[in-house]
UniProtKB/TrEMBL annotation, chain B:
The chain crosses the membrane at residues 54-75, 81-102. The lineage of its organism: Bacteria, Bacillati, Actinomycetota, Actinomycetes, Kitasatosporales. It comes from the Bacteria. This is Integral membrane protein. It comes from Streptomyces prasinus. Keywords: Membrane, Transmembrane, Transmembrane helix.
Length: 570, 119
């Protein structure tokens, strides 16, 4: 791909981000501005900011890549990411805002009056935030590498530096403008090329077998496999091989591969005939951005789909960068209306990645083999148009992708820095917040450089599963159940969130490779969420004496409309 | 002070207090503010109706989404249906459900305010 246009586009996005942030900085004066934008952000601006923050690299690049590789089942990801906001609206949005707390640890302390639970919640916030930051930095690296051939770490460093500067300089007020701006930038960057791509598809006679299963090559195609991959083939496949397959050297000979798994060594060139089925790449493919490691359909039982649905539906409410945004609403009613607007904005955005996924299956199916499926969104315009037009559209998409990394990373950094400042550093002033920002970004940046080759792809899915099994029970029970006790909350968070964390960590380490246990550990939400809820309820019931004395008043504050408490506010 | 303070007339400005309706009449509002048992009962009733509203919408969501993976697994040939439903079809119902819930929740709160303000 020609980088002549992409590099200026990325530079422009970075520059515009800094400028909009500086505009916010000029009106960011007080500590309250810094943390919560003085709680004056109206529903529309706040909704655009939440959406801009939420649509991460996984949404912008990852979903299209997943759909390209694994088909329409993967569309459950965007559906889940959206529906998560509906569940948040139903049980959390307004009471969370009325709780008057700023972060999840603040909420835990306000509800349960316990420093232990507060620290535990803080640890989970930092953990989930760092897990979520990792793929953003890696995505930035991948994008810059695909566009310009720059080294892997450069994109991550650029994002880390820009985000740290913006957050440390302007805090929440400036971030709000940056995020809102970036939502519209991201939508434009996907929408405009998508319109052109669909027009090109139409003039191509609107071939519709993109929706068929499995995907097929529509013309003879030579594919160069860069990294060694395992290919799974469901029916015998004739292919011309120039390189090594299953340990045997071939030199431009036609080979008939039987159904099953075949190892293709790096550097091999495969020539597929027209109409040939696109084989599925198994482990070994580098899918850094996808929310979960690519698995072929037969390895994804119904259980996995339901696990994914549960994790995304319930996990959204506990994501630290989402929760912090709610405190910037002026009141509970505004928090609810904001959420409805967010659903609309996110839903509109998610109409686009499937278009790229489907067109990718038609025009670039070989990306599944080369391990660049995540780059499908970036490569598709150049592939379908070529020439200056394709380059310009590609540059627009690249700019949007960088906006995705920047916005999500700044929101997460903001949330993690807030916790570090309040609970780790000795004082809470603005200067310490800046120190906290540097700490919040330094750890994931170092990690992304150190573990570059490891499958950290699961990080986003892991973040959702951990959040769904720790923060979801804490929030829902904390808001609606008056018999929750500090020991119950702590035990539930540890049992649910901890076990989800261990389960996915075990999967990432490659244990166990197959079978029922693999599915159970790779998709923990289905059992870890009930474990979290049950532990919290049972331990609370066995420690009835530990119900905090002010519970009734706290719950009244969560639920009463603001107009009823003007006089009792203390 | 030049004069005896008792002779000075002082005008105090501030938000006008709502006119008391009748003496000896306890409004529910006071019960809530003073956190009496009766006040807690009022808060509880609000929580219960809000929770019921939330659970109702959640039930609709579960009924809408829950069976879909089973349907797609049972009909593996209906790929186009899966693309259409997951790619486009589910988002409008999600937004509509959210709007319905917000309208219900705000009405619950208005009703509650009217009840405790005794209007």
């Amino acid at each position: 791909m020609n980088s002549g246009y992409a590099v200026p586009a990325v530079a422009l996005v970075v520059l515009a981000t800094i400028l909009v942030g500086a505009f916010g900085l000029r009106i960011s004066r007080t500590t309250s501005d810094f943390y919560v934008a003085s709680r004056t952000v109206g529903p529309r601006l706040n909704a655009a900011a939440i959406s801009g923050e939420y649509l991460s690299a996984a949404s912008f690049l990852g979903i299209a890549g997943l759909v390209l590789v694994q088909g329409p089942d993967m569309l459950w990801y965007p559906v889940g990411y959206t529906a998560g906001y509906l569940v948040l609206l139903l049980f959390v949005a307004a009471p969370l805002r009325r709780s008057g707390a700023y972060t999840l640890p603040d909420f835990a302390e306000a509800r349960l009056a316990s420093q232990t639970v507060r620290r535990l919640a803080g640890a989970f916030v930092v953990g989930v935030g760092w897990l979520y930051l990792l793929p953003q930095l890696q995505g930035a690296g991948l994008t810059l590498t695909v566009l310009t051939g720059a080294p892997d770490w450069l994109g991550g460093v650029i994002v880390a530096v820009v985000v740290t500067v913006i957050v440390a300089a302007g805090g929440m007020r400036s971030i709000t403008f940056v995020q809102a701006f970036q939502y519209w930038l991201k939508l434009t960057a996907l929408l405009v090329p998508a319109l052109f791509l669909v027009l090109a598809w139409q003039s191509d006679g609107a071939p519709s077998h993109a929706f068929d299963e499995p995907a097929t090559f529509r013309e003879q195609r030579v594919v160069r496999v860069d990294d060694t991959v395992d290919l799974r083939i469901t029916a015998p496949l004739a292919v011309t091989v120039d390189g090594t397959v299953d340990g045997r050297e071939h030199d431009g000979t036609e080979v008939r591969l039987p159904a099953g798994t075949h190892r293709i060594d790096g550097g091999t060139r495969l020539t597929f005939a027209e109409g040939a089925e696109v084989p599925a790449a198994g482990r070994g493919a580098d899918d850094a951005l996808t929310p979960s490691r690519a698995e072929s359909r037969e390895e994804r039982p119904l259980y996995a789909t339901y696990g994914l649905i549960l994790a995304t539906f319930l996990g959204t409410m506990g994501l630290p960068h989402v929760v912090v945004r709610y405190y910037t609403s002026p009141h509970g009613v505004a928090a609810r209306r904001t959420t409805v607007a967010v659903l609309g904005l996110i839903g509109a955005f998610y109409l686009l990645p499937p278009v790229y996924g489907a067109l990718g299956r038609l025009y670039a199916p070989e990306l599944t083999l080369t391990g660049d499926a995540d780059a499908a969104v970036l490569l598709l315009p150049g592939r379908m148009f070529g020439g200056v037009g394709g380059d310009l559209l590609g540059a627009l998409v690249a700019g949007g992708a960088f906006a995705a990394f920047l916005s999500t990373a700044s929101g997460l950094t903001m949330a993690v820095a807030g916790v570090i400042t309040q609970d780790v550093l000795p004082s809470r002033g603005v200067r310490h917040f800046r120190l906290g920002t540097v700490l919040a970004m330094a750890v994931p940046l170092l990690a992304s450089m150190l573990v570059g080759g490891l499958p950290v792809a699961d990080a986003v899915g892991l973040a959702f599963a951990v959040s769904a099994s720790s923060f979801c029970p804490l929030l829902v029970l904390g808001i609606w159940w008056r018999r929750l006790t500090p020991p119950g909350a702590a035990a539930g968070m540890l049992a649910g969130g901890g076990s989800a964390f261990l389960a996915v960590a075990a999967t990432m380490a490659g244990y166990p490779g197959r079978g029922v246990w693999h599915a159970l550990l790779a998709w923990p939400a289905l059992w870890s969420v009930p474990v979290g809820f049950l532990t919290m309820i049972l331990v609370s019931l066995t420690t009835p004496g530990r119900v905090p004395p002010g519970t009734a008043a706290v719950l009244a504050r969560f639920h009463l409309p603001e107009e009823l408490r003007t006089e009792v506010s203390t | 002070m030049p004069q005896d303070p008792t002779e000075r007339r002082v005008v105090v400005t501030g938000p006008p207090r709502r006119a008391r309706r009748s003496f000896g009449y306890y409004r529910p509002r006071t019960e809530i503010d003073e956190q009496t048992t009766l006040g807690h009962t009022y808060v509880r009733s609000l929580m219960r109706i809000q929770l019921r509203t939330g659970l109702t919408v959640l039930a609709v969501l579960v009924l809408l989404v829950g069976p879909l993976p089973l349907v797609f697994a049972a009909a593996p040939d209906a790929r186009r249906l899966e693309w259409a439903v997951l790619g486009f079809g589910l988002y409008p119902p999600l937004v509509l459900l959210a709007r319905w819930y917000v309208r219900r929740a705000e009405r619950n709160e208005r009703d509650f305010v009217r009840l405790v303000e005794d209007r």
